[in-house]
Amino acid sequence: MDIKLITLTAAFAIASAMAQEGDTAQAAPEQNSAPAAEVSTSQTTAATAKAAPAPAPAAKPAPAVDTATTAKAPAKPHGIAYNNVGNPAASPTIRDNLDKPYKMAGINLVYMEPTSEFSAVAFGSGNTKFISFENYNNLAMATVGLASRGLGISLSYALAKELTFTETKDPYEKEDEDTYTVGANDILRLRLALPLGAFDFNASAFWLTYQNETSTDTEQKDADSKSTTETEYDYWDLGATVAISNDPSAKNIFWNAGVNFTRHENSYYRETKSGSSSTKTETTGKDAHIYIQPSFNIGGTILRNEFARVLLGVNSRAPFIFYDEFKDESNHNKDSYFTMGVYATPNIFAELKLGNCWRVFGGANYTWAVFSMESEEFITDYNDELDIVKSSITRMSSRTGVATASLGARFQYASFAVEASIEDNFYSNPFTGFSDTNNDFIANFGAFIYF
Hints:
Blueprint: H1 3-32, H2 67-70, H3 94-99, E1 109-113, E2 118-123, E3 128-136, E4 139-147, E5 152-158, E6 161-169, E7 173-182, E8 186-196, E9 199-209, E10 213-222, E11 226-245, E12 253-274, E13 277-284, E14 289-304, E15 308-317, E16 320-323, E17 326-327, E18 334-354, E19 358-365, E20 368-384, E21 387-400, E22 404-413, E23 416-422, H4 424-428, H5 432-435, E24 442-450
Antiparallel strand pairs: 1-2, 1-24, 2-3, 3-4, 4-5, 5-8, 6-7, 7-10, 8-9, 9-11, 10-11, 11-12, 12-13, 12-14, 14-15, 14-16, 15-18, 16-18, 17-18, 18-19, 18-20, 19-22, 20-21, 22-23, 23-24
């Protein structure tokens, strides 16, 4: 049981007991304070007056409310087609809930979206269990999780690993080679989220291989000697994100803030040992860097009536990328390079209810590079330590991107709902989706069954 539910139930029980005590204590004085029968003034020796009528029995206290059955049911999430501009004040989507696993608590549904090859199911009367399938580039990624009202956790994985053992030998020599290969897009991600009073907190960590990488251990033996060679390529991202939002208490203005940290590794390592001698080579690729990005998103309702509302918001981020110093071809210097920027994405989102079954929605946004800068320092000419030519370049810019707009609709009847949004090219040529080979006039199309 949820500790909050246990505490609340105990409080109601104590309150009920105290109420019963109070009613009993108040009943006795009521009997004693009843008015006495009148005595005639002409009879100084009159008999004792008749007893006053007994008071009405005390009212029984009202039964305690079962908070478990009166708790507010969670809102039914929308599909991926809804709120593609990412306005924080819009209703949650199935993707939003999976990103904050505790929000899956109390939800029982199945969702299928063939346009993005995504599916999810959530079930359970106590703690909610949920599973989702999707594609992460060219690999299937599965997510499994568990959610309660106070905590949600999930694990996502897509695997591309291979281990090969090779042995080669002849009468004079033997060679063993072990090769471990991790394919591109192999990923492991852990998510955790929980409410904290008026706010909620969510965090995630991941390990991603972004390019095929291979590690090889080779051992050669003969009658007189032994040598080993270890080779390793590292092409991975290790990252974490923490964020906080006012979702549990927000009424009109919704916001969330967070920071992402990622180490992007790109390196090569080789070590050879033969007898008492050894050689080692380590190389850092030009793309190796540390990525830090704070973000802040805010949105709220600016227009509303009985059937429609309009939301206005802005999503902002400030990425900083610090590239590793690396040696140039002459092996005499190390270069430095970093980029930074501030990006804002203003957005508008609107939705309209049409009768009991239909709802239409749409959004528009654009990205503004408010400020971006890159700085690079390098040696352009090197003859000796006394004759060095250094150069540095700093570039700064501000630019607004292209505006985009989308439109979609939702149909719901009883426990079934379907949502879809339309591709941009449909508006310029409605028949292109039927005439080309992709048939892609629908951007997102998904259906729910709620239980």
